[in-house]
Every structure is written in C-alpha cells, then in structure tokens.
Design goal:
Blueprint (H helix, E strand, L loop, with lengths): L7 H9 L5 E4 L6 H10 L8 E5 L5 H9 E2 L11 E2 L1 H4 L4 E5 L6 H13 L1 E3 L6 E3 L3 E6 L8 H7 L3 E3 L10 H16 L2 E3 L2 H5 L9 H19 L2 E2 L8 E3 L2 H21 L26 H19 L4 H8 L3 H11 L6
Length: about 350
C-alpha cells in the first residue's frame, strides 16, 4: 500500500509502530498529506480519527484555540466551549502540515503536548489526556524549528523526493490520475504509453500536485474537443489523450511559466527555468501592467496557434486546450481576424 514512496519497508514500520511520531519532509506538492493519510490508514489507528491541520492557514493568534480548543468565556466571542484538533483526534492521528510556519512560542506549547500527551484548552487550567499520534510535515529546512522541538519530532523523518528525482514514476502517476478522472467524470479516458512518456521531459515545479492538475486539464481538453476513438456510440466511446493534445498542453504550460518569470521583481529574481528538451519558448512579452501583459500574451498565442492550424478554429482550440466556444469568445474579445 505504501510502495509508491521511497523506502517502503521503513514506511511499513512507521505505519505499524504508531507510538512513533513522524516528520515528513519534501517540497510543496510531493504528496505529504497523502502519505500521512496512508500511514494512518495502514496502522492500528486506521479506524480512529485522522485530523489534518495546516499551520499556515490561520493567523498565529487563532492557531492555539484551533489546536487546543477553548472554554466558554475564554475570550470575546467564545460563547461556548470548543473542542480543539488534538482532542478531536483522540485515539487517532493528528497531521500538522507546514509546521515550520509556527511561531517559536507556539512551537514550545506544541512540544509540551507532544511530550506529555495532555492538552489544556484556552481559558482552562485542566490538562486533558489525549492519545494521539502526531505526524507533521514541512517543505522548509528543519532549522526553522526550535532545537528542542526539532530533536523531538524529527527523530523519525521521511523525505519525499521531488518529481524531478523520480521521473520514472511520472507515467505511472499520470495513469492513476487519468483513471481517477474517468471514474469521477464517468467518461472513458485513455492514453498511449508513448504519449505519457512525453510528460517525463517536463519540469514539474509543483510536483505531484501540478502533474495531477495538468492531467485533469488535458482530459478536459479532450472532452471539450470531442476527440473520441473507436466510437460505436457516444456513451461507450473513449476520450483519447493524443500526442498533439499533450504537446499543446505542455507548450502552453511552459509559456505560462516563462511569462510568470518575467513578472518577478528584480529584487527577487527567479532562477532560469531549465530546458525540457521539447523546444518550448515564450512567444510574447510586454512592458505594460500585469493584466495588459497577460492579455497580450494570450492574444499572440491564439494568433500564432491559428496560423499553425491554417485558421481552423476547432483545430486551434484543441491545441490550446480550450473548447471551440471558449476560443471563439477570446477571438471576438481580442478582435482577432480569422482568415477564410
């Protein structure tokens, strides 16, 4: 069950021995939340609650009351007592994502709970025992944590590799996402192995999360274009992710990435994007404002794609990953003249 991740044997042991708290390390989008859920589901606490909390989502002043709960009247607006995340996870697992974003004072309070397995609600002096396993995660260097907390929670750490370090898994993951899209959309979607290998040459800076979004957009593009193969009937036909469709989506993705780089300020320049081997390049740029620049880029990309498609709107829509109606709307908005 855990064999899609590095060091599956260690992961199985971490899942089994639920008295060990675990720290997941990895870039954004590498699948830390999914791995935390898998560890929980594969261990003896699988029938108990799994409570996830993102430490970066709330203001520091609100985090304590969310994690530990509060008593009635503890502060203005506390009209009734509230159970915190730790108590809600009693018997199961609490997953603290982006733990590196917690302030030092909050880290100290968290350490006390992790050590003692007791939580004190805001506005109370009663320590409530909680039987929870703590799984935390961060994309940052562990030096952002207090030394005492770092020694406690990082003793058992798992590093998730970025997608660029496991390119051989990209096609496999893409097939999983295609299958998931098919199930949810109730549409049959297929892609040849050779087509999916094209994805191995791209840079997935958002890692697995970005790859999933890309595959879903490609499936939507195929659905919009009505690109069906071996169609006996509309209901039983299959949506085909063709080479042209995947390449057009990769081109669009690459050009958008390069455009974003142009918008970065000189005080915080981004490193140059590595080449992917499929000759992707930026087609337009501008010295105007953000909105104007994006519109100019979009206009030039549409004009270029129409020219490459011999002014065929349907074919251009497929290459751009748009519906025909959506492309026509853009053509009218930008005042683009279509020959023929």
């Amino acid at each position: 069950m855990l064999n899609n991740f590095s060091e599956p044997r260690s992961l199985e042991l971490f899942a089994r021995y639920d008295f060990l708290d675990v720290c997941l390390l990895g870039e954004t989008g590498t699948g830390k939340t999914r791995l935390a859920q898998l560890i929980h589901d594969s261990g003896p606490r699988k029938d108990k609650p799994f409570v996830a909390f993102n430490c970066a989502e709330l203001a520091p002043a609100l985090i304590e009351s969310e994690l530990f709960g509060y008593e009635k009247g503890a502060f203005t607006g506390a009209l009734q007592a509230k159970t915190g995340k730790f108590e809600a996870a009693d018997g199961g697992t609490i997953f603290l994502d982006e733990i590196g974003e917690l302030a030092s004072e909050m880290q100290a309070k968290l350490l006390k709970i992790v050590e003692e397995k007791r939580v004190v609600r805001v506005g109370s002096i009663v320590a409530r025992p909680v039987n929870v396993r703590v799984i935390c995660a961060t994309h940052r260097d562990l030096s952002v944590l207090r030394e005492d907390l770092r020694y406690r929670i990082a003793a058992h750490a798992i590093r998730l590799k970025p997608l660029r370090e496991r390119r051989d898994e990209i096609s496999h993951l893409a097939r999983i996402f295609i299958k998931d899209f098919s199930r949810k959309s109730m549409q049959k979607v297929a892609a040849d192995k050779k087509v999916l290998r094209l994805l191995e040459d791209a840079e997935w800076r958002g890692n697995v999360r970005e790859l999933r979004a890309f595959v879903e957009n490609a499936c939507l593009a195929a659905l919009s274009s009505g690109n069906r193969s071996n169609a006996q009937t509309e209901q039983n036909s299959t949506l085909e992710l063709t080479t042209d469709l995947i390449v057009s989506q990769l081109i669009r993705l690459r050009e958008i990435e390069k455009t974003r780089v142009e918008f970065r300020t000189s005080e915080n320049p981004a490193p140059p994007l590595p080449q992917t081997g499929i000759g992707l390049r930026l087609v337009a740029g501008s010295s105007g404002g953000y909105k104007q620049t994006v519109e100019e880029f979009d206009r030039e990309l549409i004009k270029k794609t129409l020219a490459e498609s011999n002014q065929n709107v349907s074919r251009a829509a497929i290459k751009l990953g748009l519906s025909r109606y959506g492309l026509i709307k853009k053509i009218k908005r930008y005042g683009i003249k279509v020959a023929g």
